[in-house]
Amino acid sequence: MKLRPGNSEITKLKALWRGLSDDARSYWQELFVSRTSQAEIRRELLAKLNVNFRFDKQLSRFRAWELEQRLLDLEAERAEEAERRIAEEHPDWTKDQVREDLLKRYYHKARATGDAKLGLKTIAADIKVESLKFDQEKFKEGLRTKLEAGLAELATHIKSSPDAQAAYEALKVAVKLATA
Fold first, then answer.
1. In terms of residue numbers, what domain contains 154?
2. 3-state DSSP call for residue 179?
3. Residue 141 falls within a domain, yes or no?
4. Which of 5, 116, 125, 150 makes a 20 to 30 Å CA pair with 179?
5. Range 119-156 burial, b when 16+ CB lie within 10 A, else e
6. If we measure between CA atoms, which residue out of 179, 107, 116, 100 comes closest to residue 142?
């Protein structure tokens, strides 16, 4: 939920919420779903947390945000559990293989359930991984280019010495192996 000028009390409660203990959050969550009236909950928020919701709509917006946060936390826990389970089933897999399997599962889950949010989050995670891989390859290629240019420069200075030429060739092989 975007922060808007008129919702400063909602913003205030969101900031407080993140710092509450698990027990305190549980208390409020139970209160939110109880038969307690919105007006009474608003009064209690003012008394205990100094959050002054003047309208039921503010409380409703906060409750929607809080529920979404719980769902996101649950989804993160499920992802961690799936990653742990895959690692147990396939102990020989690399992190990249586990990540690829998880992405594939979430793509299929989003498609099967029609969950657009999950689909978009999966796409975002996939793009981030691909972007990091691209950046790594770009860095390696830049490093390789610089090393090759340095070697070429070195070669021009050592052509007259057979011992230096042999050392140069060995260094060239080592650079190729290191940047492969």
1. 136-178
2. coil
3. yes
4. 125
5. beebeeebeeeeeeeeeeeeeeeeeeeebeeeeeeeee
6. 179
